[in-house]
Amino acid sequence: MKKICVLLLTIVALGCGYKSKNYTTGTMGGGAPAITSIMPNSATAGQAPMLTVIGSNFTSGSAIYWGMTPKTTTFMTAQQLTTQLTSADTACSMAPCTVQVYVRTTGGTYGSGGVNSNMVPFTIN
To answer: Of 10, 30, 68, 70, which residue is the least packed, with the fewest Cβ within 10 Å?
Structure first.
């Protein structure tokens, strides 16, 4: 009798939308943010360039991540975001170094969990 109850509970949970929202791949709404390119894609250690991220599905709730750190991000359009890097961001004791850049969108359709874009490498020489 216990096996039947567990099976019924599983069917009811799945039938009611359990795990139907995919917050990691962005299957809801306009889709997950995606990076096509970043400009520049490299810098000399200690420089502080303005970083422009080009892609799709960006919103006012999108943030550029420098490694694991969110940067103050300016929403330009659904295809463009910018952030000002600092000399500390590009500090690299053993050049060349690589930092992964990605966009995380929270709020809106995705709720507070958010959804990440693909990662794009930034090289520090």
So the answer is: 68
